[in-house]
Design a protein that fits this description.
Elements: E1 8-12, H1 17-28, E2 32-37, H2 40-53, E3 58-62, H3 68-77, E4 84-87, H4 101-129, E5 132-137, H5 150-170, E6 175-180, H6 188-194, H7 199-211, H8 217-230, E7 234-235, H9 240-250, H10 252-267
Parallel strand pairs: 1-2, 1-4, 2-3, 4-5, 5-6, 6-7
Length: 268
Amino acid sequence: MTPGAGTVAVVTGAASGIGEGIAERLLERGASVVLGDLDADRLAETSARLDGVHPGRVAHVAGDAADAEHVAALVAAAPGDVDLYVANAGVFKGFGLDAADADWSMSWDVNVMGQVRAAQALVPGWLERGRGCFVSTASAAGLLTQLGSPTYSATKHAAVGFAEWLAATYGDQGVQVCCLCPMGVRTDMLREGEQNADETARLAMRSVVTAGATVSPLDVADVLLEAIEAGSFFALPHPEVGTMYARKASDTDQWVAGMHRFRTSLER
Protein backbone atom coordinates (compact mmCIF):
# COMPACT_ATOMS: atom_id res chain seq x y z
CA MET A 1 0.00 0.00 0.00
CA THR A 2 0.96 3.64 -0.32
CA PRO A 3 -0.03 5.53 2.83
CA GLY A 4 -1.36 8.93 1.90
CA ALA A 5 -4.50 11.00 1.42
CA GLY A 6 -7.54 8.93 2.34
CA THR A 7 -5.58 6.43 4.42
CA VAL A 8 -7.02 5.76 7.87
CA ALA A 9 -4.38 4.71 10.38
CA VAL A 10 -4.08 3.80 14.04
CA VAL A 11 -0.75 4.22 15.83
CA THR A 12 -0.20 2.96 19.38
CA GLY A 13 2.48 4.27 21.71
CA ALA A 14 1.96 7.55 19.88
CA ALA A 15 2.30 10.12 22.66
CA SER A 16 6.03 10.34 22.03
CA GLY A 17 9.01 8.68 20.38
CA ILE A 18 8.66 6.38 17.40
CA GLY A 19 4.87 6.35 17.51
CA GLU A 20 4.66 10.14 17.46
CA GLY A 21 7.13 10.25 14.56
CA ILE A 22 5.14 7.73 12.53
CA ALA A 23 1.90 9.60 13.19
CA GLU A 24 3.50 12.88 12.14
CA ARG A 25 4.78 11.47 8.86
CA LEU A 26 1.42 9.85 8.07
CA LEU A 27 -0.38 13.14 8.67
CA GLU A 28 2.09 14.96 6.44
CA ARG A 29 1.10 12.54 3.68
CA GLY A 30 -2.59 13.33 4.14
CA ALA A 31 -3.69 10.36 6.23
CA SER A 32 -6.14 10.50 9.12
CA VAL A 33 -4.63 9.07 12.30
CA VAL A 34 -5.97 7.79 15.62
CA LEU A 35 -3.33 8.01 18.34
CA GLY A 36 -3.22 5.65 21.31
CA ASP A 37 -1.08 5.69 24.44
CA LEU A 38 -1.26 4.82 28.12
CA ASP A 39 -0.07 8.31 29.14
CA ALA A 40 -3.33 10.24 28.79
CA ASP A 41 -1.94 13.69 29.52
CA ARG A 42 0.98 13.45 27.14
CA LEU A 43 -1.22 11.86 24.49
CA ALA A 44 -3.64 14.78 24.69
CA GLU A 45 -0.75 17.24 24.30
CA THR A 46 0.67 15.39 21.29
CA SER A 47 -2.75 15.08 19.70
CA ALA A 48 -3.42 18.81 20.16
CA ARG A 49 -0.04 19.71 18.64
CA LEU A 50 -0.58 17.51 15.60
CA ASP A 51 -4.19 18.61 15.16
CA GLY A 52 -3.02 22.20 15.17
CA VAL A 53 -0.93 21.45 12.10
CA HIS A 54 -3.32 18.95 10.47
CA PRO A 55 -6.79 20.00 11.67
CA GLY A 56 -9.60 17.51 11.51
CA ARG A 57 -7.44 14.47 10.84
CA VAL A 58 -6.27 13.59 14.35
CA ALA A 59 -8.11 11.67 17.07
CA HIS A 60 -6.81 10.06 20.23
CA VAL A 61 -7.89 7.46 22.75
CA ALA A 62 -5.89 6.86 25.92
CA GLY A 63 -5.55 3.32 27.22
CA ASP A 64 -3.57 0.12 27.42
CA ALA A 65 -2.54 -1.17 23.99
CA ALA A 66 -2.62 -4.73 25.36
CA ASP A 67 -6.32 -4.47 26.23
CA ALA A 68 -8.79 -5.76 23.65
CA GLU A 69 -11.39 -3.17 24.65
CA HIS A 70 -8.91 -0.37 24.09
CA VAL A 71 -8.03 -1.77 20.65
CA ALA A 72 -11.75 -1.77 19.86
CA ALA A 73 -12.03 1.86 21.04
CA LEU A 74 -9.14 2.91 18.79
CA VAL A 75 -10.79 1.25 15.80
CA ALA A 76 -14.16 2.81 16.66
CA ALA A 77 -12.59 6.28 16.84
CA ALA A 78 -11.32 6.03 13.27
CA PRO A 79 -13.17 7.99 10.57
CA GLY A 80 -13.94 4.90 8.52
CA ASP A 81 -12.36 1.51 8.01
CA VAL A 82 -8.81 1.24 9.34
CA ASP A 83 -6.32 0.68 6.51
CA LEU A 84 -3.12 0.66 8.57
CA TYR A 85 -2.51 -0.39 12.17
CA VAL A 86 0.89 0.38 13.66
CA ALA A 87 1.35 -1.77 16.77
CA ASN A 88 4.14 0.34 18.19
CA ALA A 89 3.44 0.38 21.94
CA GLY A 90 6.05 -1.51 23.92
CA VAL A 91 7.70 -1.77 27.33
CA PHE A 92 11.32 -2.29 28.34
CA LYS A 93 11.00 -3.88 31.77
CA GLY A 94 12.98 -6.62 33.50
CA PHE A 95 16.74 -6.97 33.68
CA GLY A 96 18.89 -10.01 34.36
CA LEU A 97 17.89 -13.58 35.12
CA ASP A 98 16.12 -12.52 38.31
CA ALA A 99 13.70 -10.23 36.44
CA ALA A 100 10.42 -10.18 38.35
CA ASP A 101 7.44 -12.23 37.20
CA ALA A 102 5.48 -8.99 36.95
CA ASP A 103 7.99 -7.64 34.42
CA TRP A 104 7.77 -10.84 32.38
CA SER A 105 3.97 -10.66 32.46
CA MET A 106 3.80 -7.00 31.45
CA SER A 107 6.38 -7.49 28.70
CA TRP A 108 4.51 -10.43 27.25
CA ASP A 109 1.15 -8.71 27.44
CA VAL A 110 2.21 -5.41 25.84
CA ASN A 111 4.99 -6.48 23.46
CA VAL A 112 3.22 -9.58 22.13
CA MET A 113 -0.42 -9.95 23.10
CA GLY A 114 -1.21 -6.31 22.31
CA GLN A 115 -0.23 -7.08 18.73
CA VAL A 116 -2.15 -10.35 18.71
CA ARG A 117 -5.32 -8.66 19.95
CA ALA A 118 -5.01 -5.91 17.37
CA ALA A 119 -4.66 -8.46 14.58
CA GLN A 120 -7.65 -10.40 15.91
CA ALA A 121 -9.72 -7.23 15.74
CA LEU A 122 -8.66 -6.15 12.25
CA VAL A 123 -7.57 -9.05 10.06
CA PRO A 124 -11.05 -10.58 9.53
CA GLY A 125 -12.32 -7.27 8.11
CA TRP A 126 -9.21 -6.84 5.99
CA LEU A 127 -9.71 -10.29 4.52
CA GLU A 128 -13.27 -9.35 3.58
CA ARG A 129 -12.13 -6.11 1.95
CA GLY A 130 -9.02 -7.67 0.45
CA ARG A 131 -6.67 -5.03 1.86
CA GLY A 132 -5.05 -3.81 5.06
CA CYS A 133 -1.60 -3.32 6.54
CA PHE A 134 -0.33 -4.40 9.94
CA VAL A 135 2.94 -3.00 11.32
CA SER A 136 4.74 -4.67 14.21
CA THR A 137 7.39 -2.62 16.00
CA ALA A 138 9.61 -5.50 17.05
CA SER A 139 13.07 -3.93 17.50
CA ALA A 140 16.46 -5.22 16.41
CA ALA A 141 16.30 -7.15 19.69
CA GLY A 142 13.75 -9.40 18.02
CA LEU A 143 16.24 -10.36 15.32
CA LEU A 144 19.45 -10.36 17.38
CA THR A 145 19.12 -10.14 21.17
CA GLN A 146 19.04 -7.57 23.94
CA LEU A 147 21.93 -7.80 26.35
CA GLY A 148 20.78 -7.16 29.91
CA SER A 149 17.07 -7.80 29.40
CA PRO A 150 15.78 -11.33 28.84
CA THR A 151 12.20 -10.06 28.96
CA TYR A 152 12.67 -7.59 26.13
CA SER A 153 14.71 -9.99 24.03
CA ALA A 154 12.30 -12.91 24.36
CA THR A 155 9.12 -10.91 23.79
CA LYS A 156 10.52 -9.00 20.81
CA HIS A 157 11.59 -12.33 19.27
CA ALA A 158 7.99 -13.46 19.80
CA ALA A 159 6.71 -10.28 18.12
CA VAL A 160 8.85 -11.01 15.05
CA GLY A 161 7.57 -14.59 15.05
CA PHE A 162 3.96 -13.44 15.18
CA ALA A 163 4.52 -10.96 12.35
CA GLU A 164 6.12 -13.70 10.26
CA TRP A 165 3.15 -15.95 10.93
CA LEU A 166 0.68 -13.24 9.94
CA ALA A 167 2.57 -12.61 6.69
CA ALA A 168 2.84 -16.30 5.83
CA THR A 169 -0.82 -16.93 6.60
CA TYR A 170 -2.53 -13.86 5.13
CA GLY A 171 0.03 -12.09 2.97
CA ASP A 172 -1.38 -13.58 -0.23
CA GLN A 173 -4.93 -12.55 0.75
CA GLY A 174 -4.47 -8.79 0.79
CA VAL A 175 -3.05 -8.37 4.29
CA GLN A 176 0.35 -6.68 4.19
CA VAL A 177 2.64 -7.12 7.18
CA CYS A 178 5.70 -5.01 7.93
CA CYS A 179 8.07 -5.67 10.84
CA LEU A 180 9.93 -2.59 12.09
CA CYS A 181 13.27 -3.43 13.75
CA PRO A 182 15.36 -0.40 14.75
CA MET A 183 18.33 -0.34 17.11
CA GLY A 184 19.02 2.88 19.02
CA VAL A 185 16.38 5.58 18.63
CA ARG A 186 16.44 8.87 20.50
CA THR A 187 13.37 8.31 22.68
CA ASP A 188 12.39 8.52 26.34
CA MET A 189 12.89 4.75 26.62
CA LEU A 190 16.54 5.12 25.66
CA ARG A 191 17.13 8.05 28.00
CA GLU A 192 15.41 6.34 30.94
CA GLY A 193 17.48 3.21 30.42
CA GLU A 194 20.72 5.18 30.42
CA GLN A 195 19.75 6.78 33.75
CA ASN A 196 18.41 3.60 35.40
CA ALA A 197 19.78 2.81 38.87
CA ASP A 198 20.19 -0.84 37.84
CA GLU A 199 23.62 -1.45 36.33
CA THR A 200 22.25 -4.29 34.18
CA ALA A 201 19.67 -1.90 32.73
CA ARG A 202 22.39 0.63 31.97
CA LEU A 203 24.46 -2.10 30.29
CA ALA A 204 21.42 -2.94 28.17
CA MET A 205 21.24 0.62 26.90
CA ARG A 206 24.99 0.88 26.40
CA SER A 207 24.73 -2.15 24.14
CA VAL A 208 22.12 -0.34 22.05
CA VAL A 209 23.97 2.94 21.62
CA THR A 210 27.35 1.26 21.12
CA ALA A 211 26.19 -1.15 18.41
CA GLY A 212 25.33 1.63 15.96
CA ALA A 213 24.35 5.27 15.55
CA THR A 214 21.18 6.45 17.23
CA VAL A 215 18.55 7.88 14.90
CA SER A 216 15.52 10.12 15.33
CA PRO A 217 11.90 8.89 15.47
CA LEU A 218 11.22 10.70 12.18
CA ASP A 219 14.11 8.81 10.56
CA VAL A 220 12.49 5.57 11.69
CA ALA A 221 9.13 6.69 10.32
CA ASP A 222 10.63 7.49 6.93
CA VAL A 223 12.20 4.03 6.65
CA LEU A 224 8.96 2.37 7.73
CA LEU A 225 6.83 4.18 5.14
CA GLU A 226 9.37 3.37 2.42
CA ALA A 227 9.22 -0.31 3.40
CA ILE A 228 5.41 -0.31 3.35
CA GLU A 229 5.37 1.25 -0.11
CA ALA A 230 7.93 -1.29 -1.36
CA GLY A 231 5.97 -4.20 0.11
CA SER A 232 8.96 -5.25 2.22
CA PHE A 233 8.47 -7.41 5.30
CA PHE A 234 11.34 -5.88 7.26
CA ALA A 235 11.83 -2.15 7.84
CA LEU A 236 15.39 -1.65 9.06
CA PRO A 237 16.29 1.93 10.05
CA HIS A 238 19.77 0.56 10.80
CA PRO A 239 20.70 -1.42 7.65
CA GLU A 240 23.56 -3.12 9.51
CA VAL A 241 20.96 -5.06 11.48
CA GLY A 242 20.20 -7.02 8.33
CA THR A 243 23.89 -7.91 7.98
CA MET A 244 24.11 -8.95 11.63
CA TYR A 245 20.96 -11.05 11.29
CA ALA A 246 22.36 -12.86 8.25
CA ARG A 247 25.64 -13.55 10.04
CA LYS A 248 23.79 -14.85 13.07
CA ALA A 249 21.85 -17.27 10.88
CA SER A 250 24.86 -18.43 8.88
CA ASP A 251 27.12 -19.11 11.89
CA THR A 252 25.29 -18.84 15.20
CA ASP A 253 28.20 -20.15 17.25
CA GLN A 254 30.46 -17.43 15.92
CA TRP A 255 27.76 -14.83 16.52
CA VAL A 256 27.32 -15.94 20.15
CA ALA A 257 31.09 -15.78 20.68
CA GLY A 258 31.04 -12.25 19.29
CA MET A 259 28.27 -11.32 21.72
CA HIS A 260 30.43 -12.64 24.58
CA ARG A 261 33.20 -10.27 23.53
CA PHE A 262 30.77 -7.38 23.09
CA ARG A 263 29.21 -7.92 26.53
CA THR A 264 32.63 -8.14 28.17
CA SER A 265 33.72 -4.88 26.56
CA LEU A 266 30.61 -3.16 27.89
CA GLU A 267 31.12 -4.53 31.40
CA ARG A 268 34.63 -3.12 31.45
